[in-house]
Specification:
- By secondary structure, the protein is α/β, with parallel strands linked by helices.
- Helix content is 45%, strand content 14%.
- The longest helix is centred in the C-terminal third of the chain and has 29 residues.
- It is elongated, with a radius of gyration of 18 Å.
- The termini are far apart.
- 29% of the residues are buried.
- This is YqaJ viral recombinase family protein.
């Protein structure tokens, strides 16, 4: 399916998606550990930040209504979507790598987790493309590499697809030609992905608990 279509939005509804992995991982620092998974010593449940709690509410609403959450299209999102094809073409031209577009991909074992990579490469790679509307963000990436804020999404996509690496791409067509494209190979991080999987599992438990509470309350 093509991304950003109604079919694509329907496929994502009621699932944990890689684009929201930053919210899945939103636990208060130093306030405990993840709710599931083996840990040494005394354990204490980690309290969720508001972003994680809000995301649980979004998923519950999508499951109950059968409809995807309404997307508010900001100018920044429109800019990124409009420029993405040019970014992909520039990346292919510079690297000689062919990128195959894909729709929504569901984890092969865990049906409630999925992602939408910006492209698949051969049998073991993929891409995540960012086209920031603010040129300063692209400049920051040129100077310091992929921002840490994108780690949950990139590793989350690798978690879902099972692939070995992702080429992170930042592109700004307004820059001088030699500064328009940035790409960085991000390898699969098994330790981080294990924490990510743990956080997804605990979030889904909370989704199921919320659904059970609502259904029992209405009975």
């Amino acid at each position: 399916m093509e991304q950003n279509t109604q079919e694509w939005r329907d496929a994502r509804a009621g699932k944990i998606t890689a684009s929201r992995m930053c919210d899945v991982m939103a636990f208060t620092a130093g306030d405990g550990v993840y709710k599931s998974g083996p840990r040494k010593g005394q354990q204490k449940e980690a309290r969720s930040l508001k972003a994680r709690t809000d995301y649980i509410g979004d998923i519950v609403a999508e499951i109950l209504t059968g409809e995807p959450r309404e997307q508010i299209r900001a100018k920044t999102l429109d800019w990124g979507h409009d420029v993405e094809a040019a970014a992909r073409a520039a990346y292919e031209a510079e690297t000689g790598i062919i990128v195959v577009c894909t729709g929504f991909v569901t984890h092969p074992i865990i049906p409630y987790v999925g992602c939408s990579p910006d492209g698949l490469i051969a049998d073991c790679g993929q891409t995540q493309i960012k086209c920031p509307q603010n040129p300063a963000n692209h400049i920051e990436t040129l100077r310091n590499g992929m921002p840490e804020e994108h780690i949950p999404q990139v590793q989350g996509e690798l978690y879902v697809t099972g692939r070995d690496w992702s080429d992170f791409v930042s592109y700004d067509p307004r820059m001088p030609e030699h500064l328009r494209l940035y790409h960085q190979r991000i390898d699969r991080d098994e330790e981080y992905i294990a924490k990510l999987a743990d956080a997804c599992n605990s979030l889904w438990v909370e989704v199921m608990e919320a659904l059970k509470f609502l259904n029992e309350r209405a009975a």
